[in-house]
Write a structure and sequence with these properties.
With 245 residues, the chain is of the alpha+beta class. The chain contains 4 helices and 16 strands. The chain has an 8-stranded mixed sheet, with helices on one face. It has an 8-stranded mixed sheet with strand order 6-7-8-5-9-12-11-10, with helices on one face. Pfam families: Glyoxalase_6.
């Protein structure tokens, strides 16, 4: 048994507007599975797809108040592409963000609801990831996080040190998942979280038990009676285990 990281869920006060920003930023389209949910995905793409991490934007009443523990890194292919992408994102409503990055070759921006993200300078490792280079998670212990997520998902661990860990789909496609050591302490619920899904035919309850045995814990975020399971990883980052498909 194994779970797949298939999408991220992003909270927003205006799901439609933020969904449109990210669709335009990535060159994707939008759809909706119901009120308060905007789905962002490549036009005509299959779901799920190991080469793509979809985005579900979920309407919530509260605004963002603290720096996110998880952010998106966007890939570029040349210095000109990086400059053009930053300019286009600014026109779409992104704003410069200072998270203490100092003098770095990448550009830190915030989307219209304040979610930080980076537009990276060209890097060989991200040449074939698609528009999203990586999902980056702040953490206290990259080695421990790598152990948990390497066993939780059917992804491959590519690198792990005391300060950084990197995983990618076992099929060698799509964005990377990276854990970076930071001194910041998690406060409140994450504004962005992972959605995992078991494979078709797998047992949802058994997969939940397997994740708990690895160190995940049940988490109440006010979800009520829903078909999916809300858990947290060993550092308290909430994630959802969706039903098999």
């Amino acid at each position: 048994m194994a779970a797949r990281l298939i999408q991220i869920a992003m909270k927003a006060r205006d799901d439609s507007s933020l969904g449109r920003f990210w669709a335009d930023a990535l060159g994707w389209g939008t759809d909706s599975e119901g009120p308060g949910v905007t789905n962002v995905a490549p036009d005509g793409g299959a779901y799920p797809d190991p080469a793509v991490l979809f985005i579900d934007v979920l309407r919530v009443p509260d605004a963002k108040t603290v720096k996110n523990r998880l952010h998106i890194d966007l890939a570029t292919t040349s210095p000109a592409h990086q400059a053009d992408l930053v300019a286009r994102l600014r026109e779409l409503g992104a704003t410069p963000a200072d998270i203490g990055q100092g003098d770095v070759p990448w550009t830190v921006l915030a989307d219209p609801e304040g979610n930080e993200f980076c537009v990276l300078e060209p890097r060989e490792i991200y040449r074939d990831t698609g528009p999203i280079a990586a999902l980056v998670v702040d953490c206290a212990d990259p080695r421990a996080m790598a152990r948990f997520w390497d066993e939780a998902m059917d992804w491959t661990l590519h690198e792990v040190t005391d300060d950084h860990a990197r995983l990618r789909s076992a099929e060698g496609v799509g964005p990377y998942l990276e854990f970076v050591r930071t001194p910041d302490v998690k406060t409140g619920l994450n504004r962005i979280h992972f959605d995992l899904r078991p494979y078709a035919g797998d047992d949802h309850a058994a997969e939940g038990d397997r994740l708990r045995a690895l160190g995940a814990t049940d988490t109440d975020i006010g979800q009520g009676d829903v078909p999916w399971t809300v858990l947290s990883d060993p550092e308290g980052n909430e994630f959802c285990l969706l039903t098999p498909r």
